[in-house]
Amino acid sequence: MAPSISLGTSQIAAANILENRELDRAAVEHLSKSGLPYQLVACVLEEADLSRLTLDGWVFADCNVKQANFTGAKLSATLWSSCKGGLSDFTGCDLSESRIEGCDFNNSNFRGTTLTGTQFNRCKLTGANLSEAKTLNLAFNETRLADARLPGLSFRKARLNGLDFQMADLKKCDFRDAVFQDCSLRDANLADCRFEGADLRGADLGGIRLLNAKQFKGATISRDQAGQLLAELGLKIR
Question: N or C: which end of the chain has fewer CB within 10 A?
Fold first, then answer.
């Protein structure tokens, strides 16, 4: 029996449900010509070329989309739940207003992807590339972003919960007035980042080098964090 999936008002409930199917481009393209959103449950689309297809409003639940090619596809208002999608390619596609929950998209490519209003909840994005993505109102929650490339993204005034940025490329990211809770910035590239007004007390700052202390001006840290940062400069606290 297909799992029950709740959709927002902006998403149309898929009247057409396919379960446990192996689908290639020809099959998905044929389905898309109906103009109706489909709900795919436990389907296999591994290595499928789905580039430039229009799949707005579709639901992907427990699907295997590893190494699938979604380049330039229209995927707005889609829902992704518990999918496996390592090394998948979403370059230049439209994922606006989509929800991605409990998915593993490690080492996937989201370069230049439209992620306006997109939500990632409890996902694995280790090594993912989000360079040049369009990210207005993009939200992450309890998501692993270790080794990910996120240069220039804005997290201004965001509440960041359970995000692992360990060794991530965060160059020129905007964290002004952001609040960190149960997060890690350990060994991340923070070159030219802005942290004015940020509350960093809930972040692991291990390995951070204060090459430019001005970027942390106005940020709030704990006493323990202050001692850790000073230790990185070789200073002894007595």
Answer: C
